[in-house]
Amino acid sequence: MRKEIKYIITALILIGSLLMTGCNDSDPEKVLSETDKVEIGKILEDMESDVEILLFISEKDCFGCQKTEILMSELEQITDKISVKVFDKETNSDLSIKYDIELVPAIVIIGKEDYGIKHYGFPGGRIFVPFIEAIILSSMKKPNISEDLQRKINNIDDPVEVKILVTSTCPYCPDMVRYAYRYSILSENIYSVSIMANEFEEYTGKYNIRGVPTMIFNENFIRDGQIGEEEFLNYIVVS
Amino acid sequence: MNMKVNVYHKPIINYYFYNVYLCIINITDNFKRMIKSYNYMSVYDVAILGGGPAGISAGIYAARFKLNTVIISESLGGTVETAHLIENYPGFESISGFELAQKFKGHLENFEVPNIKKNADSVIKEDDTFTVKLKDQDVKAKYILIATGTKRRKLDVQGESELYGKGVSYCVTCDAFFYKDKTVAVIGGSDAANMAAILLSTIAKKVYVIYRKEKLRGELVWIERVIKNPKIEVLYKSAVVEIKGKNFVDGVKLDTGNEISVDGVFVEIGSIPECCFAKDIGVKTDEKGYIQVDQSQKTNIDKVYAAGDVTSGSNGFQQILTAASEGIIAIKSIFDDMEIRR
Q: Domains of chain B, with CATH numbers?
């Protein structure tokens, strides 16, 4: 089992590094190499049930749409447990409103249920790992957690949206994204939106920040820098 | 004899990058195993405080010496993770700090060394054992290895804390992209500053390196790249006395009286030791706060050892290699000391 874990970790690192440095440069029509697909396929074998990925794109002014669509298509080809539906944001306005799509490309992960996990931008670099984790965790039943953590989460009565501004090269960002995704899975009142800040400069600009990771809780409280998991939850609780 | 006193009910969802897959691969078996590995024993042989290269290499060697060991660190990897590029670690011609840190952690995963994902608040000596005080529990150990590393040194000038996240940054790999075609300043003249300037030169239109001394220090490879880079201008014998700006950084004031317009300031002026609790148990430090150790990595306090950047060891040469080396020397010394006392 240890070897298996090491193997998976190594594979994810290699794949994440590849995505960070420009993907499959030999063929612009591909993001993942055949080797990457094999490695990811082994990781995704742990999915327990189907996961639906809703990808919102646009034909105009979309920096990462094409590459993201290719990547999602490649993930869909890797396992029959992932299905991808692609929507044009403008021509599917009802759906865009339903999922509150502000930017494109937007990825909505729907597993056993809609846990409220959304990502804006190409999910490459260091964000690729929590992204794949989110797909796998969404396919599983809710995990058992400690009574203390459950009590805190149960006390969240009102919806809380957490936006996490990240970059593909930020070493502190994956943990912040991971915390948010996990809390979304654990609570129907927590919604997570990870945003590749470098792809949406104008959007990022409205929060007056020049650093990542930055967390925005319910649009009214901004916390920048790396924080611990418990502190992260505390911010959610008080938001 | 070790005895379980309580079980740390580690939430199955409460994991970092690596142990996520312990859960995913086989949720039942692995959860049981994980809980078992996270059991808090009554007294560990060694409590390693810190999870950087020194702590991780110490953990690996401790496991191989069959010492009952725990690593107490909120995260594993240390400051290595933030390094843009590492080109002086044998076996890797050029590797990002993030990747190297993942490889360290992956290697540690091969051994049964539990990691309590919290930082120590204090350490108390009681007879023959030490109690490491965490936020909501205590951990007891016969030996302590302090490998808590360093934290970023701040400029401590007006505007620095006020404009953090609004132009002041301590992580070039995180925030460089915000400065596309802008002008930035890197404060410092060591390897970290030189590497930061080189990375920023690929994004920004102009990079100032502001350094208080007459020439840059560090590896000549990096210095040469900085000097030859047409986008980088080094301002020697200059120190920042104020970071200016209202909503965002818009300039820096130097002790020469000059003011420079910049959009961002990256502070790379080294680090200070992270060992505030070491003094609680009487560990001696040098005038800069680094823990003093002998050749066996032993401190002045019996059964307390230290390794890595937090110490004054390795002739003050703070490298990943020297940190890892000090970590394993410390474990070997602890092992030898335990043998002698038996």
A: 43-152+271-341 (3.50.50.60), 168-267 (3.50.50.60)
